[in-house]
Amino acid sequence: MAEALRELALLFLRLGVTAFGGPAAHIALMEDEIVGRRGWLSRAEFLDLLGAANLIPGPNSTEVAIHVGYARAGWPGLVVAGACFILPAALIVTGFAWAYVRYGALPAVGGFLYGVKPVVIALVAQALWRLGRTALRTRGLAALAVAAAAANALGANELAVLAGAAVLGLAARGMRGAAALVAAPAVAAPAAAAGVGLWPLFLFFAKVGSVLFGSGYVLLAFLRTGLVVERGWLTEAQLLDAVAVGQVTPGPLFTTATFVGYLLGGGAGAAVATAGIFLPAFVFVAASAPFLPRLRASPTAAALLDAVNAASLALMAVVSAYLARAALVDLTTVTLAALAGAALVGLPGRSSAWLVLAGGAVGLALRG
User: Fold this and answer.
1) What does the pLDDT look like over 198-212, one tens digit per residue?
2) From CA 300, how far away is CA 65, in angstroms rounded?
3) Is 180 helix (H, G, I), strand (E, B) or coil?
4) Do 112 and 364 contact (CB within 8 A), yes or no?
């Protein structure tokens, strides 16, 4: 047990430092490390964890990390994996928030991200290919994934797409390849708002973490309504800066809450906001993880889980397509993505974290 916990801690601390690019990229990195390099889970087992994470509110990639920890080392592993994935990002974001409050602007990271983003696209493409071969094993599941991707690309909400997949999976229950599990889805110097206590701050972010389905990509709307419109704790500009920091730093996008907490309450506010938004994820995974084997053993539940896995990959593919449009902006970035893809194929079993850092170094050299 001690050795398993040490391995979990080291892996997720490293991922917390190098996992740039948002939930789709995080899941790709985890799949590479956990399934490809270490063999802790089979690809089918990993897909089930991904599907289960889509069924509950909160940050999906963080919940996958927590699920992996539970599968590897039980309750202690659940805590260690989740905390180690969150901690590096929270500390890095706190550093950004300190600089923002002190200097009234965000540090420049454009050159680094210029090189990182194409590598992330290659990682996600590889993960989609590998997971897709397992998840889309029948024509019915493949058709379901195509329909889910099309619906999402045309504007359908993530929750609606996953719920629709669940209904179709149940309807096709008696057919070979039926599929789908219901899943949840859906520079002036800054000044902190006066009179924001730590307890109201914790309660606000705990509520967000308890009801936000889908991924960090839909976080902005929730935060704008709660922080800017209803409470007036932040300005529009401050909120956009907070979301930008969550996007450009590694680890979970929900560490946007860490930045907001620092603006509103300093170091204590950062800690309280971080605890509030991530605590529900630990609770939801702890409540649901023990039932996953039973779900897979039930023919009806297994059909649902298969379908939700297919729809989850479809949503991941749509997000990745949008990310690729933003990342592959010139011949250099296209070349970086192609080289990263070739390295992933030609050097199987190697950690992909070095590719992310190498991409960032190239970006700094060219645009730093």
Assistant:
1) 999 999 999 888 877
2) 26
3) strand
4) yes
Distances (CA, A) of 170 to 180, 210, 214, 321: 7, 27, 21, 29
CA distance 169 to 307: 6
* Amino acid identity for residue 195 in this structure: G
Written as six digits, the tokens of 63 are 């919940």
Beta bridge partners of 304: 180
User: For residue 76, what pLDDT is reported?
Assistant: 95
How far CA 104 is from CA of 80, 107, 191, in Å, comes to 35, 10, 9
If phi > 0 it is left, if psi is from -120 to 50 it is alpha, else beta; for residue 41 that is: beta
3-class secondary-structure state, position 321:
helix
CA 102 to CA 120: how far, in whole Å? 32
Is residue 53 pLDDT above 90, yes or no?
A: no
Pick the range with the lowest mean pLDDT from 45-54, 73-82, 221-230. Answer: 221-230
Annotate 205-237 with b (16+ C-beta within 10 A) or e (fewer). bbebbbebbbbbbbbbeebbebbbeeeebbeee
Share of the chain above pLDDT 70, in %: 82
Tens of pLDDT, residues 60-86? 889 999 999 999 999 999 999 999 999
Q: For 330-365, what is each residue's pLDDT tens digit?
A: 898 899 888 888 887 776 656 566 777 788 788 888
Are the C-beta atoms of 106 and 99 separated by less than 8 Å?
yes
For 129, residues 6+ apart whose C-beta sits below 8 A from its C-beta are none
Q: What is the dihedral of CA 161, 277, 360, 111, to 10 degrees?
A: 90
Write out the two tokens for 305.
């889980």
Residue 148 pLDDT more than 70? yes
Buried-state track 115-148, b at ≥16 Cβ within 10 A, e below 16: bbbbbbbbbbbbbbebbbebbbeeebbbebbebb
